[in-house]
Structure formats: C-alpha cells, structure tokens
Fold this sequence. Notes:
mainly alpha, two-stranded antiparallel ribbon, 6 strands, 11% strand
Amino acid sequence: MNERKIxxxxxxxxxxxxDNYGAHQYQTASRTRxxxxxxxxxxVYTIIFLALNRILFxxxxxxxxxxxxxxxxxxxxxxxxxxxxxxxxxxxxLGKRILMIxxxxxxxxxxxxxxxxxxxxxxxxxxxxxxxxxxxxxFHISMLNFICLINYLLIFGKQKRCLHDYVSHTQVININ
Length: 176
C-alpha cells in the first residue's frame, strides 16, 4: 500500500528510543490522550451529523433503525473524512493533532488512506451497524453499544490497542 516512513513527512520529532540493536521504538500513546482525542473527534462528528440531519430532515431527528439513519451516519462520516483529510494523510484526525498523537502501522509507517478510512473506520462502523441492525431486528436488543464497549475495552491490554487497531494492524504513538 501507499505507506510512507514517519520521518519522510513530518517536521516534528517523534518520541523514539533505540533498542539494543539500534532499531527505533516509538512510544505508544497513553490511554488518556487517545480517549481525549476520540472525544474531540466525536464532538466534531456529532456536530456534522446533527447539521446534516437538520439540512436533510428538518427538525425530525433520525434515531430509529432505518436505512435513513445508516445513510446519514455514512454521509456524516464522509464529510468528517473530508474535513480531516489534511490530518489523515499524516495518520491523524483533528483530535489526534491537538493531542499530538498519530496512527502508524505496526512497522511505524504512516498507513495509507485506504487503511485509515476504509479498514480502520468505515469497515468497523459498517460491520458494527449491520450486526446491531440484524440483532435488533431479530431480538429487539441493540448490540452497537456492546460492540463499541468491546472495541474500547481492548485498549486496557498490554499493547494499548483497540479492536479497530488490531483489525487494521495499526497502533497510536506519541509525537513531539
């Protein structure tokens, strides 16, 4: 894929140490920084979602399980992607940029936009939404919160990676 070395595009130094063999080891971002960055991104996404909902559907909020809701969520996510494009090409979102962290592959390269947008975000969002809708249709129980909970609980593991990090073979590191 179109992966670039971190040093190729950044003017900032990345927190790194050398192991006994001279290879660079990057410092994994803290759970707190990742949480705050996600909060900033969620706030931006929510504002886009609500504005788009207002434009398309007026004062009627679309929260029911429907194709409209899925279309609205994906459309808002695409707009979120467009707004964050400048940051995404460097493995960041607005929240990650503010908190000085970035997404890299397990080989410490900047992931391609395909990896960041399709695998890391859209695929996870679509699969979670599909499972949630199927489960709700058959059992009338929403599983989306449970799927998201599993995704975020994995960050408490030794590697500090969420489910979407494991699926896309990425990690989040600190930058200076």
